Amino acid sequence: MNETTIAVVGNRNRRVDMFVRACDDAGVRARPITWTEVLDDPENGVWRARLAGCAAVRIDSPGEDPAVDARLRGGPVLATGEFGDKAAWHTGFVQAVRRIEHAASDAGTRTTLRADDVAVLFDKAATHRRLAAAGAPVPPALSAPVESWDELAEAVADRGWRRVFAKPVRGSSAAGVVALTLDGRGRVAATAHVALVDGRPVADLRPHRYRDVDAARLIDALGPQRLHVERWFPKAHLPDGRTFDLRVLVIAGRPTHVVVRTSYGPITNLHLGNARGDLARVRGLLGAETVDRALDVAGAAAGVFDSCLQVGVDVMLGADGTIAVAEANAFGDLLPRVPALHAPHRDTYAEQVAVLAARAAA
Q1: Is the pTM of this model over 0.90?
Q2: CA–CA separation, 167 vs 223, rounded Å?
Q3: Is 301 within 8 Å of 313 (Cβ atoms)?
Q4: Long-range contacts of range 86-89, CB-CB < 8 Å, 24 or more positions apart?
Q5: For position 2, what pLDDT does the model report?
Q6: pLDDT(114) > 90
Q7: Measured between alpha carbons, how far apart are the two ends of the chain, in Å?
Q8: Beta sheet of 5-10, edge-to-edge order
Q9: SS3 of residue 262 by DSSP
Q10: Paired residues of 249 in beta bridges
Q11: 11-41 residue pLDDT tens
Q12: How many CB atoms lie within 10 A of CB 182?
């Protein structure tokens, strides 16, 4: 019986290391290909020949490598926290994924995601539209991104919204996300992991708080990123006052891994210093039926992106049992030490390897 081989396109980092280790543990051969190899010669590179004989081509995140980021944007390497031209990055990344997709097809195999889905998943406004059209519960949102404080304030006032989230359309990892509270009398409070340095926005792991005119300046500084604006969803709280939501990883249509993300602030991303919570505690607080519904909602939301082997879906839960989808992530599987719901010995990478190996054997 021939050994199953899976190519993985990624950077030399822990994501690829963990996937390769999962392959080794399963008796599957991993064939790593770096993003640099793909970008060095996208049309005729040696990397294309290495796809031959592979059961699948896993496309992993191009993140954590400033040089790769610069090449996808077609610009210089950015300073830490600098936003850069996200639209150019989006175009470059989608084009690169499409080349890999075509090369995989030529080699008689297929990728673990397609460029058409990537283009949507890295555009928050487009993701919101696709999810809403599919009937997923998403917060109400402005019909088009805004580019200034005046534009945002007028649109929000017209709808009578007092609390909103403003998100860079092509942002990731909560960079540039702003939680806004407006009292209707001209007072504004904003929280964001963004510092203003000489009027320029710089992403920061620490939360920054702005009021009134400074909040307006923050939105104006982020305006060139184009901001997708959603009405604030009131998340449930733990007894200690922390809010929480769920990162649900859906693999091959099945919710397999869940992380409870908790925070004393409005933004729960774990890399910002927030803490993991206990899923059993959430079940006890809201009821097992509510949590199970949240997993079903995540599974259906991921199904909207049916070319993707895995999608990380961020699900918000209200104290009254309401549920809403906050985000869908193409690379939401970096969840170390999180066991599968149905197979505690499998982490997120082992589960994906098992699925790909089973497909190859079928």
Answers
A1: yes
A2: 10
A3: yes
A4: 86/168, 86/169, 86/170, 86/171, 86/225, 87/170, 89/170
A5: 67
A6: yes
A7: 13
A8: 29-34, 5-10, 56-59
A9: strand
A10: 257, 312
A11: 999 999 999 999 999 999 999 999 999 999 9
A12: 19
